[in-house]
Design a protein that fits this description.
alpha+beta, Aminopeptidase, nine-stranded antiparallel β-sheet, 11 helices
Length: about 475
């Protein structure tokens, strides 16, 4: 019969072996280059992306997106809390990673930019569900509406640990890692208009649609803006001595996001109908020949429509077209030495009818003093054009550190996972990093703009980073 000592000896040896193995795992750097893990990321990101896009038709409000995300968390057993649209999801640290710093992902959602935000949401859901038993992980989903960032102030302090490393996500057509994000000024310009009976006998509707809607920013210089495209046609038509009157002109749905569509109805002199259609055909051909790949589904079309009963007066028609033509749009400032884009402006919305004309404008800049110059310029243009100037919103510049510990760690992980270098730079476009409370912004923080072509690489980068948040032996 065995005694207690003979029974306990192998048990103690097994326990020591397990402890040794755990310690070894905690000290050896793990690199995610394994084909199986890459395949897992590829497959699951595709699945999350497909699920979100398949649900798009039903997720038409932020409240519905909120419910969708909460249902996902509940079904996956992820602890979550909802407060005024902000959804906080938490995954506890494993025993091995109990001393690792907390990682916080701040991810936007916005029904007005649903397709753009599918990518950061898919990334965040993957990391929450497949975090490989690493350190404490918190994801904060913040609702935006037309890229308005104000809800971020509602992030609760109790979910952010003192040692937290914060990754702020954004969605756009171009992936980017940023240690600084530009501030913004948002404007609304208005003018009353007079109406009259049409003096021309033919009427046309002109439409540009299907342009990808996204934030104005680094990649928007030279991008198609349906509003300014149609307005340029109107301006050149007047210069060709073809008179017209605007009945309506509308484009864009928000105050900051680049418009996906614009449409107008104008009346034209019947004697000049053939010349006018010739100009439209030429404009259409030029539009189609210069379409960028991301806007390959955009359409330019026109058709004759019944004559409207009332139109904007000839004077106010000319006043509107001239005003939009001379407004600031596109690149405003670059760094003379580095050629870095410093400031950009855009016209995200217009609405003209026989009562008044409304024009929206947005400016982004990495320099607060440049934003002030844009404010002054826009106000001067309004004064000269007879439009009322109103600044309706502003966001301050966010400045982080280019070579912070988080930036360097993520850069190392990106290099290991992809074999490429991560360029950490400044972004003229604001993100939630500009709007989070001070108790969040004081942490080591980096902003990642996630596009479809980098979603999987950024996911792998973050997973490698999480696995290597424990101390390693040299």
């Amino acid at each position: 019969m065995m005694n207690k000592k003979s029974l306990l000896a192998p048990l103690f040896a097994a326990m020591l072996l397990i402890i040794s193995l755990l310690a070894s795992c905690a000290k050896e750097e793990v690199v995610i280059t394994d084909r199986e893990i890459k395949e897992k990321i590829d497959n699951k990101i595709d699945a999350y992306r497909t699920d979100l896009l398949d649900s798009q038709d039903s997720l038409t409000t932020n409240e519905k997106i909120e419910k969708h995300l909460k249902n996902w968390a509940d079904s996956k057993g992820v602890r979550n809390d909802v407060d005024d649209g902000i959804i906080t999801m938490n995954v506890d640290s494993s025993m091995i990673y109990k001393d690792a710093p907390q990682t916080v992902l701040i991810c936007p959602y916005d029904h007005t930019q649903f397709e753009n935000y599918v990518e950061p949401i898919a990334l965040t859901l993957y990391v929450l569900k497949n975090n490989e038993d690493t350190g404490a992980l918190t994801a904060v989903f913040v609702p935006e509406e037309d890229n308005r960032l104000g809800k971020a102030v509602g992030i609760q302090k109790k979910y952010i640990q003192k040692d937290a490393k914060v990754i702020v996500l954004n969605g756009s057509s171009h992936g980017l890692a940023a240690y600084e994000c530009g501030g913004s000024s948002t404007y609304r310009f208005t003018s009353k208009v007079k109406k009259q009976t049409p003096s021309h006998r033919k009427a046309y509707r002109i439409v540009i649609s299907g342009v990808k809607s996204e934030q104005t920013g680094n990649r928007s210089v030279g991008k198609i803006n349906p509003i300014t495209e149609i307005n340029s046609i109107l301006a050149s038509t007047r210069n060709a001595s073809i008179d017209y009157e605007i009945s309506e002109f509308e484009g864009g749905e928000g105050s900051t996001v680049a418009p996906s569509e614009a449409r107008c109805v104008i009346t034209v002199d019947a004697d000049k109908q053939e010349r006018f259609e010739g100009r439209l055909e030429k404009a259409k051909a030029n539009f189609e020949d210069t379409l960028p790949s991301e806007d390959k589904d955009a359409k330019f079309y026109y058709r004759e429509v019944p004559l409207p009963k009332r139109v904007v007066s000839d004077k106010d028609t000319s006043k509107f077209v001239s005003f939009v033509y001379t407004l600031l749009k596109g690149e405003f400032a670059r760094n003379d030495e580095t050629d870095e884009l410093i400031a950009v402006t855009s016209i995200p919305n217009v609405k003209v009818n026989t009562k008044r004309a409304v024009v929206g404008s947005i400016a982004y800049s990495l320099d607060e003093s440049v934003l002030k110059k844009i404010d002054d310029s826009e106000q001067t243009l309004c004064g000269l054009s007879g439009y009322r100037y109103k600044k309706i919103g502003a966001t301050k510049v966010w400045k982080g550190e280019k070579e912070s510990a988080l930036a360097e760690a993520l850069s190392d992980s990106y290099d290991k996972y992809t074999g490429k270098s991560l360029k950490v730079k400044r972004s003229v476009t604001p993100t939630l990093a500009n709007a989070v409370p001070d108790f969040v912004s004081k942490h080591d923080m980096l902003a990642l703009t996630v596009s479809s072509n980098v979603t999987k690489d950024f996911t792998g980068m973050i997973m490698d980073y999480l696995i290597n948040t424990i101390e390693t032996e040299e």
